[in-house]
Structure prediction request, 342 residues.
Amino acid sequence: ANVDLLLSCGEIISASIFAEGLQKLGLPAVALTGWQCGITTDDVHLGARVTGVQSEKLFELLGAGKIPVVAGFQGVTETGKVTTLGRGGSDTTAAVLGVVLKAERVEIFTDVDGIKTADPRLIPYAPTLKVMSYREVVEMGHMGAKVLHPRAAEITMEEGIPLQIRSVVHSKGGTTVGRGFKPKTAFGAEEITDRVVTGIAHLGKRAQVRIEGASDFHSSGVGTKVFQILAEAGVSVDLIYLSPDLIAFVIDQAKVSMAHSVLTPLGLNVKIRAGFAKVSVVGAGMHGVPGVMARVVNCLEGEGISIYQTTDSHANISCLVLEEHVSRAVHALYREFQLDRI
Prediction:
């Protein structure tokens, strides 16, 4: 709780400075903390989820002709403890307030001119996507893209409120996120269509865990126990493979020591190897389209990049590769799916 209180200070300072700047322009702005705005959360510190908004203060200010400037990234539990919403939490705050206010749209201003088809740090010339579906943005966020927090897209998707990702520097361009748009509402873009692959995301600093030693992980109940003790230790797992004689999954590299300590007492053969990354192709249109996995595998194999594990959903295919191969993998998949032509 003390750390959350400390971390919330930066957003409060920013909100206060911004409100003062608006006042100097003759605009009646009022800065509010997350809790003054009535944002309540669960009690998961450093990664809380919003549970509700007591919006009376917000509507009172708006009714009086004031401009509320709400500090993002923060809230308060029912017992009065300050919480923070985790990385990208200000996006979530904006989305929540957009829903409460029944906004026409939610605009997120950032340091890039929208969501790119690939990480611009690896591919500086990657084009900006004019329109994306909610599903694609959520998948990109969960797979490692950092422009928009996926929870913000999930919240606005529930109410059908469009999101616009725009640059603080350039007045034109940007990415509009939603279910579909007429040309005038999406920066001149055409209506959203499901492309097979929309973009590529990557997430580094992963570790692979492989567990053997049980006669049958299913019938013995050991498999369930493995995942239960990891959950109790706060270790999140990804790319899960489960068979009668092998459990394999991926964790954050920072959690390797914790995973070792809780799994060792089980007396199983546990091997944990760090130095991996997850590379994902994302697209709402890939579901049910044959051959996408074959193209991904052939592309990476053609570059001499080994795949250590895979998983997929209706809108993404993810591959575990060595972290030193991430840049080559992203460039190869970018070419394979012609993401310069989006």
